């Protein structure tokens, strides 16, 4: 059983380099940091006698997301403080790996290690991996861990849903985000909008008073008046990603039936989504053959406000400020020229919203890690899931927080972007945790590309997608 305990120990940091994963091409950067346990007694620093248990944490992270592994390492101090107060002789060393490999290589690395019983004690990944890794026996259920530590009571209640599968909890959120509809304040002003009208746009979208049809009409007007070049009215994500599902939702589609644990495809919503994607091109507000555009081109275009509307993620804000408009003023330039809102309703009836994709920490099973460290791993995650610890990551990488008290925690509250987008968590939805969702998304994505590019009509693309879904997923699918 997990036991509630409360905290002390002083830790020193040793930074070393590790073997890089062979599966990543090109070779990614990996940082390993170890916490070495020591305590102060009688004014002298001596090594603590007793059992030392190493807890390993793997996280996919770029240079601004390093707190994904660094936060659990720092949380070791609080864990050892708890253990000291409880009179336990055991102490923890937390070793973290921040791996900049692509997600595919990173997940392959974990599954290969787990199959060999050589995985980490804690692994971070997208919540969509819960059903696959739980089925494989790589992770343990999280319900008991959640009940054992009061820190988890502060986690935003709705975020727990992202870690649920078949009636059990399997993960704790590490971060989440929103995917706003960004817009150029500068271009709207050139179009004749007043400052008050621009300021009111996010609320109009939230209240379903500005729809996707209004977005298209505004973009066409901007092109007709020479405010933006043809094809620069709206730039959605240029490559494959879950963001596109937002339009399926905005046209009334649903993805999952939890009562039957089956995926759902709504034919009418699928056709409308595909028709929207094609209309963007036909109306001249998105370029022909746009999908596949290099990310560097996309980032440069939107950050220099050459597009009127675009769809992105709040986590990109820090990257934009540091790497694309730093010479123009960084965040000050962005706040002056860029606004953000929910994804507009399609028709004024379906609510505005945003896809959220929480990354989650999962505790590896003995089968996957080769160790019986699950209780201590849980303790580490409890001390990682606090306003203080999570805000280090949230502010540093522009991700939304995961606990309720962050809204009033000064370092978080003082971050303008995070404070102004936190409300979006009240309008978010997730992709489903289902073992067949990867295949599902591949199929609807491929058909969407054909529809946007004009290779198939929206109706034909929807028919093709549904036929393939029925063949590939079969009994796991409901067609509406």
Task: Please write the CATH class name of the largest domain.
Answer: Alpha Beta
Beta-strand percentage? Answer: 15-25%
Give the biggest beta sheet. 8 strands, mixed
Estimated structural class:
alpha/beta
- The gross shape turns out to be globular
Intertermini distance = 44 Å
What is the alpha-carbon Rg in Å? Answer: 24 Å
Helix content: 25-40%
Average pLDDT rating: 90
* Tally of discrete structural domains: 2
CATH architecture grouping of the largest domain: 3-Layer(aba) Sandwich
CATH superfamily of the largest domain: Periplasmic binding protein-like II
Low-confidence stretches: 1-49
Question: What is the CATH topology assignment of the largest domain?
Answer: D-Maltodextrin-Binding Protein, domain 2
Based on DSSP secondary structure assignment, what is the total number of beta strands? 19
Structure report:
There is one protein chain. With 480 residues, this protein is of the alpha/beta class. The chain is 40% helix and 18% strand. The chain is built from 19 helices and 19 strands. It has helices spanning 67-85, 103-115, 130-135, 143-148, 185-190, 195-206, 212-224, 245-250, 267-282, 295-303, 316-323, 331-337, 366-369, 374-384, 387-397, 410-413, 416-421, 437-453, 458-473, and strands spanning 10-17, 30-41, 44-47, 52-60, 91-99, 122-126, 164-165, 168-169, 172-175, 181-184, 234-235, 256-257, 262-265, 309-311, 338-341, 354-355, 359-363, 428-429, 477-479. The strands form five sheets. Strands 1, 2, 3, 4, 5, 6, 9 and 17 form an eight-stranded mixed beta sheet that branches. Strand 2 and strand 3 (44-47) form a beta hairpin. The two termini are 44 Å apart.
């Amino acid at each position: 059983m997990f036991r509630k305990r409360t905290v002390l120990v002083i830790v020193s940091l040793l930074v070393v380099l590790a073997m890089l994963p062979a599966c990543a091409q090109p070779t990614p950067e990996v940082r390993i940091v170890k916490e070495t346990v020591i305590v102060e007694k009688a004014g002298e620093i001596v090594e603590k006698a007793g059992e030392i248990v190493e807890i390993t944490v793997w996280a996919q992270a770029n240079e601004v997301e390093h707190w994904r592994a660094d936060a659990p390492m720092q949380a070791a101090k609080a864990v050892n403080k708890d253990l000291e107060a409880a009179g336990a002789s055991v102490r923890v060393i937390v070793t973290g790996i921040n791996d900049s490999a692509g997600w595919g290589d990173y997940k392959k690395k974990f599954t290969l290690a787990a199959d060999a019983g050589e995985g980490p004690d804690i692994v971070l990944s997208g919540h969509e991996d819960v059903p696959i890794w739980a089925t494989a026996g790589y992770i343990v259920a999280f319900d008991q861990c959640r009940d054992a530590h009061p820190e988890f009571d502060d986690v935003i209640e709705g975020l727990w849903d992202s870690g649920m599968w078949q009636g059990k909890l399997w993960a704790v959120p590490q971060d989440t985000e929103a995917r706003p509809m960004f817009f150029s304040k500068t271009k709207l002003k050139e179009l004749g909008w007043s400052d008050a009208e621009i300021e009111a746009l996010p609320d109009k979208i939230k209240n379903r008073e500005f729809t996707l049809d209004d977005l298209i009409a505004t973009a066409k007007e901007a092109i007709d008046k020479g405010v933006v070049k043809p094809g620069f009215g709206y730039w959605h994500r240029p490559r494959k990603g879950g963001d596109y599902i937002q339009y399926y939702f905005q046209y009334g589609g649903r993805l999952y039936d939890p009562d039957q644990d089956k995926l759902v495809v709504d034919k009418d919503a699928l056709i409308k989504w595909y028709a929207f994607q094609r209309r963007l091109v036909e109306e001249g507000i998105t370029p022909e053959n746009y999908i596949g555009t290099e990310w560097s081109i996309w980032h440069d275009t939107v950050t220099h406000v050459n597009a009127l509307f675009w769809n992105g993620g709040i986590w990109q804000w820090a990257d934009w400020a540091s790497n694309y408009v730093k010479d123009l003023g960084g965040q000050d330039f962005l706040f002056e020229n860029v606004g953000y809102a929910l994804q507009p309703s399609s028709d004024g009836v379906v609510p505005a919203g945003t896809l959220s994709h929480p990354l989650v920490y999962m505790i590896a099973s003995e089968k996957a890690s080769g160790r019986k460290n699950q209780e201590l791993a849980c303790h580490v995650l409890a001390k990682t899931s606090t306003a203080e610890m999570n805000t280090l990551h949230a502010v540093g990488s522009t991700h939304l927080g995961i606990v309720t008290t962050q809204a009033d925690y000064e370092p978080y509250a003082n971050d303008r972007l995070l404070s102004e987008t936190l409300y979006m968590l009240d309008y978010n939805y997730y992709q489903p945790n289902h073992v067949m969702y990867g295949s599902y998304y591949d199929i609807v994505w491929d058909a969407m590309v054909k529809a946007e590019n004009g290779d198939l009509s929206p109706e034909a693309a929807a028919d093709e997608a549904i036929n393939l879904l029925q063949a590939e997923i079969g009994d796991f699918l409901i067609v509406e």
